[in-house]
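ugh finaly. both done.
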Amino acid sequence: MAPRSSPTARRRRLATALRQLRETRKLSCAEVGRAVGWSESKVSRIETGRTGIRADDLDLLLRTYEVDEEMRKALHVLRRQASHRGWWSTYGDALPAWFQGYVGLEDGARSVMIYQGQLVPGLMQTDDYATAVMRAHQPSVAADEIERQLAARAARQALLTSSDALEVWTVLDEAVLRRVVGGPETMKPQLQRLREIAGLPNVTLQVLPFAHGAHAAMGTSFIHLKFPEPGDADIVYIEDLTSSQYLEEPEDIERYSLVADHLRASALPPEASTSFIKCIADAMS
């Protein structure tokens, strides 16, 4: 089955290919800029995927790199695919600009490993739980804005059950389950939703209990994304209330991969985790 075609992932792939072409020819961004009449920062923005590239600009770069015709055609195809609008662009009014980049990468990922220490991940939230979180962040948020955000979240959640479903491995701290977001009438259905999602063939869900003590990810939550194309390097994504950070350096990826392994080893097995969630839900008044 062909992987999902995310324009964000395609842009990143094109950016990586252009950077590799430059590095193979042992040229700096400044040297390339001088050769084609651009600023060094423009070359850098293209190579980091922060901006797209026009067809004529791409041709200019490829002539500078003396690329053969076969590769030139392949990179132009990639550029056209990268310029398509993803489904999330429809929700530009509901998704912050800094988060749209992540949604595009998630849409093109093969798998994600999520560790969350505070709240249920967006891919697994019920509408009522999500609404309670939104109102906690923005008490004056309008009802129509909530509806738009819920619609965008529902579109993301379709990744869990699509024909080419995203593979998801999630470790939740016990605090996620104990914090009664929106009251018991919201939290109990949310816990039931987690149990249902845990039953999907592409989802593995584990709980890290308080009783297991200190662990390798204390103080942070993160998402580790892997992509279907061999040339697409992993990304670790971290966010706060108003911004996000992408880690792509090999040493960072290695560190977070090790942390993820420790979390999986420290958490309850999947079957015991769903039983743990049920016990918490049953005890909730």
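ok and the 2nd:
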Amino acid sequence: YAQLVTQFPRRGPQFEAKFNEAKAKILEELVDRQIILEEFKTIGAFIKPNLVDDEIKRQMRELYNGDETKFREELKRSRLTMDGYREMTREKMVVSAMRAQQFSDAPPPLPNEIQNEYNDIKSTLRDVTKDVITFQKIFIPASDPQNPVATPDTQLALAEDLAKQLADGKDFSELAKSYSRDAYAENGGLQENVPRVDLSPEFASIIFEAPVGKIVGPLLDRQGFTIVKPIKIDFGPAPALDSKVREMVEERVRRKKTSQQYDRWIESKRKRAMIDIRD
């Protein structure tokens, strides 16, 4: 949700469409998760606590740039305790384990299938705390001391007009020098070799996924509106295809091979389940 708010300052139809799409997907996943958790109880299985802790560390590294303070602040904003989050994580791991069980009779992945799958996903397995980016930025504050009559709405309109000018080919450096209100304006908005961990998670998620040279924004934060143009992106190293990574990749290949089998299994469980959904 935070990333959508950052990406769509005016909300609007596009925001609503993406929000409703995400909401429907989450609801379906919650229903399926509850069904699978009941199955897990039935067979008397369990997840070791140290595995849950390892997964939380991985999420902290990938979702919060390894910043434990930001992670705990997000828990507080979400009104979650650490114990509550640990239980949520355990449940997700149960779901993953039960899904994997449904693929146990899949034909073994071939070496080329494993390599191809690894090549497709290795960037998502990288150490994101080592990501570095060079970009140009124009920052328009929500309230501008140099313009007492400015309002958040007029400032957003200005940022949107600048983004359109940039998309039409206007020089980024010149517009940054004229309009940006931060320490980098005089240098054309250029910020070089910025570590991902120095950026907010929402901001980093958006600009590191953007193609180099694309005008991104305006993006909303607490201070105002930001327009970004990525110049160079250096991603952190991906793990080698060792035994631990290979096991995960093999499971993904099996899942793809037996996706129809899993879909039939979960659908049969849904039909028999009694789920109470409340707004």
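summary for the 2nd one i guess: The mean pLDDT is 83.
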